[in-house]
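Lab notebook, bench 4. The sequencing result for the construct came back, and we need a structural model before the next group meeting so we can plan mutations. Quick request posted to the team channel:

Model the 3D structure of this chain.
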Amino acid sequence: MQFNMKNMWILGLFLLISLPCSLEAAWETLQKGVDHQVISYQNGHIHLYRLHLKKIQLDLLDARQYGMNAMSVRDFAVKSNALLVINGGFFQEGFAPLGLMIQKGKQLNPLRRVEWGVFYIEKDLPKITHARKFEINPDITTALQSGPRLVIAGTIPSLVPGTRSQRSAIGMTANNEVILAITQNVLLTLSEWAQIISQHCTYALNLDGGGSSQLFQQLRGQELFIAGITPVPNAFAVFDRY
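Done. Here's the predicted structure in token form:
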């Protein structure tokens, strides 16, 4: 078939419509151990951060340690000198955290045996498991309970789609890299969120979304603040490893 300009225009339009995401940028290294990728989606963006735990430190921050019930991720970053901060798990009235929290090997909040998951770091290796299968041991330095799990061994589990909201997540790759993900001006159901995250993670855990979803980055002189509507009681934070 002879391709004329009309044929090429129709083909290009078809390919554009067929893609759920527009052109996906390559990973950009922001500093040693931290890579950043931005995906244009609908009328907004999805930000992905790939962390190498042998080169950076990933910790859990608790607002109570700063004399507060909750803070914005920007305030967490300012008070802790973190390079990158993303909101953590769910909470109830009065910003009381729901579920397990472990910071530097110390348990700050108890585990709830519910149908959620736990992200944790054990001997510098990231792991995600069902909350009912999680067992505390002295080698675990960081842990947070949240849910639901979005990706399990590369497979998306059965999920209740829910309403479309801003989303945050934490996951891991087959190479034991940690992935932090957040939407910016994009509203997704849990199922849609899982479909996107599954392209980058072998295991992934949903973090609190909606008005709690927020991120602050200050790396290589670049500042990015995806503001939430409400402050949060805990957050994951990235630090230099000395």
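The chain has one domain: 22-240.
Will bring this to the meeting.
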